[in-house]
Amino acid sequence: MADVEVEEFGVTEWDLDNEFNPNRVRYKQSKEDQIYGVWADHGDEDEEDERPSFRGASRGNAHKNISFISGGTAGGSKTEDQTATSEDVEEIEVKIPTKKVRNMAGPSGVFASERSALGSTIGSWEKYTKGIGAKLLLKMGYQPGKGLGKDLQGIQAPVEATLRKGKGAIGAYGPEKPAHRIPGTTGGMNVDAQELKQKREAKQWRKGEKKVKYIYKSLKEVQKEGATFIDHQTGPKVKVIDMTGPEQRVLSGYHQLSQQHHRPDEEPTSKGPQGNFSLPELEDNLDVLIETCENDIKRNTMRIESEKNRITNLRFEQERLLQEQNESERVRETLSKLSDALRELEDGCGPKAMRALSVGEVCMIFRRLVEDFEDEFDQFELSDLAPLIIFPLMKDFISSWQPLEKPSHGTEVFRQWKSILERPHRPRNAPDYFYRLMWEVWCPPVRMSVFRWSPRNPEPLVKLMETWRPIVPAGVINHLVEQIILPRIQQEVEQWNPLMDTVPIHSWIHPWLPFMSQSLETVYQPIRMKLSFALTNWHPSDSSAKLILEPWVGVMSKGSLEAFIATNIIPKLGAVLQSFIIDPRNQEFEPWQWFTAWGDIAPVPALVAVLEKYFFPQFHQVLFQWLQSSCNYDEVASWFSGWKAAFPDRVLADARIREQFRMALDLMNRAVSGQPIQPPRPIDFFPPPPPVQQQARDRFNAGSTPHNLNLTFKEILERRASERGVLFMPIPNRKQDGKQIYQLGTDRQLYLDRSVIFVFNGRTWVPTSMESLLDSC
């Protein structure tokens, strides 16, 4: 049988019995095996507690059949004298019945709690004791320092694995077994050092010895660490009971916990390695000295930084105090100058003034106060001196002033006071003393002059208002215009007679348009009433009516002026056209010129209505009769072109006028082409009624005038509107449900449907009676 035990790979009886046993011991992979797998490192050369290669090795030895070999020793090595071979050995196999017991140990046959204790230190206690093992060996002839056995060939240490240098075969690099070390001889290393090394390695899980690493700190690093240093020495005194050690201790503060002296225990609890000259008390004292030195460095660094910050704060405080001192000196000088200026005002303007100051000198002093002492002027509210000094002084200044005769007197002085009292940077809640100055000082003499003023002579007062308008506040101007000047104009308009006065009224009304254009609306109504009364007996041949109304174009509202012309002028022009005779052989154009003279100011719809009613029926009839006879078509064309050119452009641009000329031109074209022509149909053409209806209508209208028989509902509304001076005209290109929309007055829109008036109220169209509609305009 060979010396080396062979591992069997066959299936054993134990394997068959535990094939389906769920509680059988299984190998548990270590964390290193899980990470690296087959490349995992299963131990170092010096580790003896290694995992066996196969789990069944120990179990196989336990249940393996015992073999007896005769004539030799089991497991012994053969000597040179032995000549018996393995073939001559008779093996007798004896089976020993064993009870199957669950293996509680691991694959190595050692319990997990004992694995860490096993190793090269087994039996080390024999050094310090004289146990039975050593006694028995000595009795058997064992000599210390030599091998075991008869021939001293036995070894004391276990077989050690040796790493081969290269990849060569066995023996290629010389003997691979290390020389046997005799116990007690350590090759130059004393026993204590070897024991210390073994103890140190026993506490480490790595092969190499951990070296002591020293940390060196410079002064800057210690100072840098002091940025977060907390000085506990200056903290409050608190009684602290320390029970972390073997004995109870009473400390005076929490800071002593980090400064306590760690003395070693009487019975050391740690079995860690110690050096030959280990002095724990000295090491602890040195640590305390080092820590104290570091804390002193950090504490001094903090104090230095604190002192630097204090120096910086004191420097800023010094600069601030210097600034305050300079500011105080400046304020003192300013107040001294301000006091001198106020004393000068008091000496020159007070009741006991030695020398009275002029208006210009007082104005210069106030200007100096505003420009040089602006902050103090607002702080001490020096503007309150205005009612005490400026108001009496300015009253004396304009006491003899005649505003209408010298309108520009004092403008420069008041303009300076405005720049002083109404400066742009004054406080919001400051009183408006300039407004009071103009109201209490300037306004009374102007008011008295207006009472003596004649509205028919507006130039002096208008010039006064234009001169003072940039200076006087708007409130004062509006008061004079609306409360004083406008009532005087209204009184004068009530006394005006357009038939007797030779001066046109617009000559003394229009100059006030820049000041009160909206307020004069109350004056226009009586003016239109007086002009309407004056035009009662007016004839279009008199051109004075146009001269009176033409300046009001653009002044009065467009609707009111057109309504006035439609009511008072258009009927007169209609009467002229009604009596106008169109004669191509001897045409008189003077009545036509009276009519066209109003073409630039009269409303176009009213002029078109007059032409359609009185001019074009006669015009078409004359043209038809002329074309019926033998005539020269060139003369007819020249006559047609002459009449068309005689129309004003505003009237000729109307669609109804162009339609009338188109009808005349169509009649001329039919006559030239030889086609039969028919007399033109009248504008208001209706088929003749039956005889019975005609007789009944004649009897019904016996008491009516012929003029009212031909009026439509639209014409009746137009006449009623003109009688009240309200504009009534169609709005171009505006229709509602196919009906033409008309404008009544300035803001009313309506349309007619079967003699019913529909008015738009802003949201919908509502039916309204004629009387209520005219009353609301």
Automatic annotation (TrEMBL):
GO terms for CC?
U2-type post-mRNA release spliceosomal complex
Pfam families from the UniProt entry? G-patch, GCFC, TIP_N
Residues covered by the G-patch domain: 129-175
| Region (Disordered) location | 38-91, 170-189, 254-281
Task: Please state where this protein is localized.
Answer: Nucleus
Superkingdom to which the source organism belongs: Eukaryota
A Gene Ontology biological process term: spliceosomal complex disassembly
Q: Which residues form a coiled coil?
A: 290-348
Please classify the protein's predominant subcellular localization into one broad category: nucleus
The molecular function terms of the Gene Ontology recorded here are: nucleic acid binding
Keyword match Coiled coil: yes
This protein's record includes keyword Iron? no
Q: Which UniProt keywords apply?
A: Coiled coil, mRNA processing, mRNA splicing, Nucleus, Spliceosome
Describe the family membership recorded for this protein in Swiss-Prot or TrEMBL: Belongs to the TFP11/STIP family.
Q: What is this protein called?
A: Tuftelin-interacting protein 11-like
